[in-house]
Amino acid sequence: MPDIKPETPPETPNTTEKDFLESYDATAFDRPSVTVDVVLLIAAKDALWTLLVERQEHPCLGCWALPGGFVGLEESLDSAATRVLAKKAGLEGFFLEQLYTFGRPDRDPRTRVITVAYYALTASERLIGQNREWKIELARIVVPWDGEAGGAVTVTDADGEPLELAFDHAEILGTAVQRLRGKLDYSQIAFQLLPEKFTLRQLQAVHETVLGRTLNKDSFRRRQLASGHLEATGERERQVGYRPAALYRFAKA
Amino acid sequence: MPDIKPETPPETPNTTEKDFLESYDATAFDRPSVTVDVVLLIAAKDALWTLLVERQEHPCLGCWALPGGFVGLEESLDSAATRVLAKKAGLEGFFLEQLYTFGRPDRDPRTRVITVAYYALTASERLIGQNREWKIELARIVVPWDGEAGGAVTVTDADGEPLELAFDHAEILGTAVQRLRGKLDYSQIAFQLLPEKFTLRQLQAVHETVLGRTLNKDSFRRRQLASGHLEATGERERQVGYRPAALYRFAKA
DNA sequence: AAAATAGTGTCTATGAGACACTATAGT
DNA sequence: ACTATAGTGTCTCATAGACACTATTTT
User: Fold this and answer.
1) Is residue A20's pLDDT more than 70?
2) Mean residue pLDDT across chain B
3) Would you call A72 and B3 a contact, using CB atoms and an 8 Å cutoff?
4) Which residue among A130, A196, B162, B208 is buried most deeply as judged by most CB within 10 Å?
5) What is the DSSP track for A94-155?
6) Residues 27-56 of B with CB under 8 A from A
7) Looking at beta carbons, which residues of chain A come within 8 Å of B112?
8) Which pLDDT value is given to residue A90?
9) Which tens digit of pLDDT belongs to each residue from A104-120?
10) Nucleotide nearest to A216 (CA to C1')
């Protein structure tokens, strides 16, 4: 067992709480650094994609890393994650949820860094510009395991060339995919990966991309329509070369 | 948005990674304190119970708190949680899993404290002494919400007298109950709340206690026996005043 | 024998998978 | 008219709930 500091500072038990707080020395103990890292996930082209940034400094110079940053002393973990994502993706209003906290002592060679990982979801349409190119740099996620087995994943660029991930970010990404797969069935997060109006086929495609397997069309349609989470817009697809499908909207009730 | 330090230290980009690491100053930034808090859960007497300690110091003097402690600079989060639990419960070998990380800036009035919460499970038999009394101090958890709604819970002593919880520990406890309820169906964690050999009725009682509702006996038996996770020991209950039930053992395969 | 729970067999309702069929857009 | 996909109707199978019934222990 490692040698650690005592849990509580030397006490002066007969003071009031107010006196105690005023005399409390917050710098008395060694403390780890705390960061947030954000996994922004997109479903497109039959795969999951995530926002990565190329490291311009040591360590892991040239590797690809999740957008992240230190947690400010006055901000909550959620707002730190929101801030990091707004800065790196240039957009706001994503679905954002805490994922897991990674704290292996040797996960960063500089010093002890504990990172609270978050994952964010958005429709791929929000990140594609007019020219059909990504507006930001996205990497394709390759999941080497089935179901909810979990474990590290690998990433490639749009041409399928492998990218090297920094630190333990392959594990963090894998945890995000595992979480997404696990919550898909019983939650409504799949809708976060779609634009406001979508067809049942698009919804099924998102489910299939996330799960990495095909689904039964009939059963999927029935279940979704019976779920109460779909609201018909009355509109239909346009210009699709076949019978246009009805467009639905996500309904929370 | 809070005013925070820059994300990276002043750079010297033309050095090697080794040089960089040697010159890196880990103390250059303000850092929060990081603790682990552990929710040890027991199912007994038709309720969930958890290990709490009475605070002997400010703040929240006299309140009840989850066992916790600072994370040492050289230990992993998991081992910090294991260490805290071994010290407070005097036992080892519990099921232990990371729960959630709580980091509201004002959750501890002393200074910024981010806590990585864990939950642990064990059979109530392990914590009951020869005299049928708890060997350690356990509080009864009262869950004011149904299903997996989530939210804070309250706690009482064994006589039903309310206990005041410190900091945001009511929320942490609620998150633990919510997680346990959520994982009960699709995981094997219920077995962690039972002794090595148990009857189907005991298994059902644990499920019902965790979920806070009754379950269909026939369906429960069928599903459990079909799950492949039960191994008959060939033994039966003894001295029970009615037909003794078969004893099973948890089988991972 | 009575009491109390263990354990079995069977019927029914529900939801998933499979498949055949009809509908409707673009070309 | 042809093609491709949308959408409907129906059959079958697996599983949960309900309920009746038998089995086995202690008192």
Assistant:
1) no
2) 87
3) yes
4) B208
5) -EEEEEEEE--TTSSSSS-EEEEEEEEE--GGGGB-TTSSBSS-EEEEE--S-TT-----EE
6) 29-34, 56
7) 26, 73-74
8) 82
9) 999 999 899 999 999 99
10) C17
